[in-house]
Design brief:
618 residues, alpha/beta, six-stranded parallel beta sheet, two-stranded parallel ribbon, 29 helices, 56% helix, globular
Length: 618
């Protein structure tokens, strides 16, 4: 254990259940594999008695590979132990829940031969059901579907329904309440609306730097100032006085409008540039709530009627999907987890599983939704006394709120542990970058915040590195300007900066540079500038990823196999790099005198060209 840090050694304390909080790059997976190895040292424990859970198939496969490698290096030729590893349960939550339901189908109330739908199957079923219901609405919801089409276009309706279906368990009760207590919901909206409106106004009128700028402007000869600056000043004062919500909303929209920006003019008073920049930045980001009409207003009545229609239509679609799945004995990933959660209420099943699993290890626990947290708690039982639970996670990295992840519940689970360990050394990133990360996140999570940010130390403290900020001036061609700055910087610095490969410091190549973007809006500008500067690049998951020639070729092959009557896809597949048949060869093979009504495939089957015959057989 000499290769472990002091904190990592603490995490391997087998006399306690342990909660490990680990930022990215601090060796959490390494510690989890070592913990697994420590569990095997218990003479009463076989690999089948250890349950290791994570979220993705890739993570589970990597975990299994690392654990097997670690056990193999420690155990040498212990054939019995190595053979036993093939019976270990290192799985995704979905895989584990599926196995549970197949083991206890009667108790879970599912068909023993159920099929599992992956996400693509689920999406296809959802899309087909939505299309069918909207095009052939049954009498029970025909009026509701008609109302939705009067309110929105077909694509918007489908998108809204899909969003509702994504978390219908949470939304269903709310939509039921719309029908029974519309006024109560409106009053809640009204309170939140007032709070949002007040916060938006305060962001402008109570900002010290903005107030200072407006005081300077007030003492100037305003006729010499620019028209947009005079309008900014007027908006500021109107926001300080106005009380009518509609008027306030209109003023906030004006404030946010890019045409209303404070500016410096030669003939006017000289203002501190930082105050002007601050005002324009705050104004451009001001949140503008929509207008909330009175409850008795016809707009409000119509809004509630549309929401009620959305609730009834979505509810019908949910029941239709459930009926189709039940008829075909299908469960999707969400169903697997929900049925497994319900199975945890069966005392006999829980007792069997608790006897089987002596130790439970859970990775990425911050992404657990309430059902997954409940399953872990039931399997572990009194984990403080039994010393059988090891969890790894970081609430700061919880990114699956849109899928139902509940960090608050995970935080409550973490608080139950008597021993918690914070991994504080980063093995991945060089010190200059770690220093910036620490500074930024200490500002995001200041002292006294519910989430505490622990300062991270860089294990690679002697490796060189840097952090550079490329700052552009405000412009309406933001993406073009930023792309030019970035491309120029890359062109100038490639070969001058260094990276570390196998412990050796070598000049950075283009292939060592990654560009991450939070939005795709500027990707075309970026690609244009990279091309302009002669910088080679590969686009990964860009806007036109599925339109690239490589992807088109693969799709053509799949389509040609799935539907042999699709002449266009077959032609595209055969002339792709996978088969390399020329246009001339295809034309000669297809120009047969015989009549084949079934299309190109049948004509090509008679070809004497061996390359074409081999391609069709493949």
């Amino acid at each position: 254990m000499s290769d472990l840090t002091d904190r990592q050694k603490e995490a391997l304390d087998m006399d306690n259940s342990v909660c490990v909080t680990a930022s990215a790059g601090t060796g959490k997976t390494y510690v989890l594999t070592k913990r697994y190895r420590e569990c095997l040292k218990d003479s009463s424990t076989d690999p089948k008695n250890i349950l290791c859970l994570t979220f993705t198939d890739k993570a589970a496969a990597e975990m299994r590979e690392k654990i097997e490698k670690d056990v193999r290096s420690d155990s040498g030729d212990n054939k019995k132990l190595l053979d036993a590893l093939h019976r270990c349960t290192i799985s995704t939550f979905h895989g584990f829940c599926s196995a549970l339901l197949r083991e206890f189908p009667i108790e879970a109330g599912v068909n023993p031969g159920f099929g599992v739908m992956d996400n693509l199957d689920k999406e296809e079923l959802v899309k087909m059901t939505i299309d069918d219901v909207l095009k052939r609405a049954p009498d029970a919801i025909k009026a509701d579907v008609t109302k939705l089409f009067r309110f929105q276009g077909e694509n918007e309706i489908k998108k809204s329904i899909q969003q509702l279906l994504g978390n219908w368990n949470s939304y269903e009760a709310w939509f039921e309440r719309i029908s029974s207590d519309a006024r109560g919901i409106y009053e809640t909206w009204s309170e939140r609306y007032d709070d949002e409106l007040t916060a938006a106004v305060d962001a402008i009128t109570k900002d010290e730097k903005i107030r200072e700028l407006m005081q300077l402007f007030e003492g100037s000869d305003q006729e010499k100032e620019s028209k947009p600056s005079r309008r900014c000043y007027q908006i500021f004062h109107d926001l300080c006085r106005k009380k009518d919500p509609t008027e306030i909303c209109n003023l906030l929209k004006e404030c946010k409008d890019k045409d209303n920006r404070f500016s410096q003019v030669k003939r006017g008073r000289e203002y501190p540039p930082e105050l002007i920049a601050h005002y324009n930045k705050v104004a451009s980001r001001i949140p503008v709530p929509g207008v909330l009409h009175p409850f008795e207003d016809e707009h409000t009545a119509f809004l509630f009627s549309v929401l009620q229609s959305y609730g009834r239509v979505t509810g019908y679609i949910v029941k239709t999907i459930a009926t189709k799945k039940e008829k075909n004995s299908l469960l999707n990933f969400d169903d697997l987890i929900e049925h497994a959660k319900q199975l945890m209420d069966n005392a006999d099943v829980v007792e069997t599983l608790q006897k089987r699993y002596h130790y439970i290890l859970v990775d990425e626990v911050q992404d657990n939704d309430p059902a997954l947290t409940y399953i872990v708690q039931k399997l572990a039982g009194d984990f403080v006394r039994k010393k059988n639970l090891f969890i790894v996670g970081d609430i700061k990295q919880s990114i699956y709120g849109f899928k139902g992840a509940a960090p608050d519940q995970v935080t409550e689970l973490m608080a139950e542990f008597e021993k918690s360990v914070e991994l504080d050394r980063n093995f991945r990133t060089v010190k200059p970058v770690i220093d910036v990360i620490n500074r930024v996140f200490k500002g995001i999570y200041p002292a006294g915040n519910a989430i505490v940010y622990p300062e991270i130390e860089a294990e690679r403290e002697h490796d060189e590195g840097s952090f550079t900020i490329l700052e552009s001036t405000p412009t309406n061609k933001k993406y073009e300007q930023e792309s030019a700055l970035l491309a120029a910087w890359i062109k100038e610095n490639v070969g001058k900066l260094f990276v570390y490969k196998n412990g050796e410091k070598v000049p950075a190549r283009y292939a060592d540079i990654a560009i991450l973007m939070d939005k795709r809006n500027g990707i075309d500008d970026l690609k244009h500038k990279l091309d302009e500067y002669g910088i080679p690049y590969q686009e990964y998951k860009g806007r036109n990823f599925y339109k690239t020639q490589e992807v088109t070729d693969i799709v053509n092959v799949i389509k040609a196999v799935a539907a042999q009557e699709d002449d266009i896809s077959l032609y595209g597949a055969l002339r792709s790099p996978y088969f390399g048949i020329t246009d001339a060869e295809l034309a000669a093979a297809a120009a047969t005198e015989a009549y084949y009504p079934d299309g190109l495939w049948k004509r090509l089957e008679t070809s004497s060209n061996p390359a074409i015959s081999e391609a069709l057989q493949m």
